[in-house]
Amino acid sequence: MKQKFPPWAVVKVVTAIVATPAAATVTTRDGGGCSRNCNIPEELTKALEEKPDDAQYYCQRAYCHILLGNYCVAVADAKKSLKLNPNNSTALLRKGICEYHEKNYAAALETFTEGQKLDSADANFSVWIKRCQEAQNGSESEVWTHQSKIKYDWYQTESQVVITLMIKNVQKNDVNVEFSEKELSALVKLPSGEDYNLKLELLHPIIPEQSTFKVLSTKIEIKLKKPEAVRWEKLEGQGDVPTPKQFVADVKNLYPSSSPYTRNWDKLVGEIKEEEKNEKLEGDAALNRLFQQIYSDGSDEVKRAMNKSFMESGGTVLSTNWSDVGKRKVEINPPDDMEWKKY
Asked: Is the pTM for the entire model greater than 0.70?
């Protein structure tokens, strides 16, 4: 005959949990050290049918569900226990553990803190409070790391400031942008399900009613309408009131284009020349660079000597001595292992 155990008799030490499709059985040891198998949640449920206002039964059943990993059910039992007995610190511990495992760290921390006030001698509260704080810090760090990877850029024209968020594949319904006179706020639901927040305190006022945004497949474009043609030295203004400067476009050697971006071609050519100058070459390329440099830096006599010797010798002689090659014809003189041919 199967022996049934009242809830108060259950559990000195829990030694194993076996979950089956039909039910969950917990192997326990009673006070005498004998191993017995019993379906504890079922026994407690029957006991609660007889005594539905027993806070301790709910607390014990919450503990059983925690052992079985049924945190959603367990937290409901813990809340029922607390409703019947608000000063039950054990029920608060059970509730906090469930909230922690459901990754609701803020709620868990609040629950454990409340329980610690009721029973400061229970070291479990200190342990779980520390775990919650560490979990919260880790979660915030992950969010910050992800958001820091999202870049934005900006440029300006005479009439507006354009901010580009480098976020791909978002839906228009997942983007909310709010404009005020000196503040921009953007909230974007990323494809990963996370939220991206951008909040900027602007350097100069804008016209919110005429500011717009557009969601594209590769980016989000936000256009801030300027009330006057003022050049922004930077995008954000941290409480300072800068002296406005009239917007003057840099038109020196700019290539005509419908693009809002402009480019100073003189500067670009200078950068290319500097790169070519500093480029490290080898073999024939290095030798040609040397001859070019000698010709470029040489005097008029050096240049005449190089031109005359190269042309008269069919490219086999290159001299910089005008006093020598200037008074004679430079003969063809190929390298020893080569033969000169006229084509």
From this structure: no
